Amino acid sequence: MSEQDKKDQKRNEVRFINSFFLAFMFQSLTPRFNYQEIRRKSTKETQDMKEELQRKEQLKEAAKKKREKQEEIEAKARIKAKTEADKQARKLKAEKEKAEREGRVLEEQKAQPTPAAAPVASKPASAYTETRLRLMTPSGNVIKSFPVDTTLFEVAAALQQEGNQVNSFTQTFPKKVFNQEDFGATLKELGFVPSGSLIVG
């Protein structure tokens, strides 16, 4: 082996050793860098969580103060209203006692209106189950009550049992004649609810 070959071999060995050393150093430092990155990221997440928790606590505290302030306002309003009511009651009591001593009647008592009777609400026709008919027969007037689903045929039969001949019914107002072909209609269908008046013919 020549002297030049020996130098080249020595140079290659040095290069190999340097390359191996650099590779080893890179591998040993890489996990350290990764660990530092993970630690930095974890620290940031922890800080973010702390800030979020502090923000929620601040919001909760603000809501609590707002609620307490509103409750205080409402309590003051109730106390004021009660004070005014008590004051008015004492004033009225004093005026009443004074009026009684003087034999007078308070204007407030004079002005109190008499409760009006509640109006009687009329029921719709559909709410009635019976109707009252005034039947004018040749022998006199007859007043009878029938279920609203009674037909004119059944009304005629009831009159015939009492000796009245029935050929037709006439409504007085508005005037309308119901012949035997109309006897299948019910009193409800003809509008004779809750009452009606018919001339027996």
UniProtKB/TrEMBL annotation:
Give start and end of each UBX domain: 127-200
Q: Which UniProt keywords apply?
A: Cytoplasm
Where located? Answer: Cytoplasm
Q: Please give an example of a GO cellular component term from this record.
A: cytoplasm
Pfam families xref list: UBX (PF00789)
**Which stretches are tagged as biased composition: Low complexity?**
113-125
Which GO molecular function entries does the Swiss-Prot or TrEMBL record give?
Answer: K48-linked polyubiquitin modification-dependent protein binding
Q: What is this protein called?
A: UBX domain-containing protein
Is the keyword Endoplasmic reticulum in the record? no
Q: Which InterPro entries match?
A: Ubiquitin-like_domsf (IPR029071), UBX_dom (IPR001012)
Tell me the organism.
Trichophyton soudanense CBS 452.61
* Basic and acidic residues bias spans: 40-110
Provide the residue span(s) of the region labelled Disordered.
Answer: 40-125
Could you mention a single GO BP entry for this protein?
negative regulation of protein K48-linked deubiquitination
